[in-house]
Predict the 3D structure of the following.
Amino acid sequence: MLLYNVTFGIDKKIETEWIAWVKENYIPALMETNLFIDYKFYKVLTHDDETSVSYSLQCFANTIEHVVKYLNEFAPAIVEAHRIHFKDQHAAFNTLLDEV
């Protein structure tokens, strides 16, 4: 199983709004692709900053092909919607992990 992880750093001022938006928009759009079998959404507790907070969205896929298809066909629109909605109030980076 593969884990596609997106770690977000967001401005604390928008935290509540951002969480709601991710749960109502980002995650449903991602799961509607049918390329991921499950997800987990966590707050990063080791992040220590006065102005920002971090979250991890972990998406589980059966194959690398599913992740590549997501990245090529679906991620650009989902990421762009997020970028437009929270312009200059977030940062994100992705990690792909393989279970051993």
About this structure: The chain has a mean pLDDT of 94. The radius of gyration is 13 Å. The first strand starts at residue 2 and ends at 11. The CA atoms of residues 16 and 31 lie 22 Å apart.
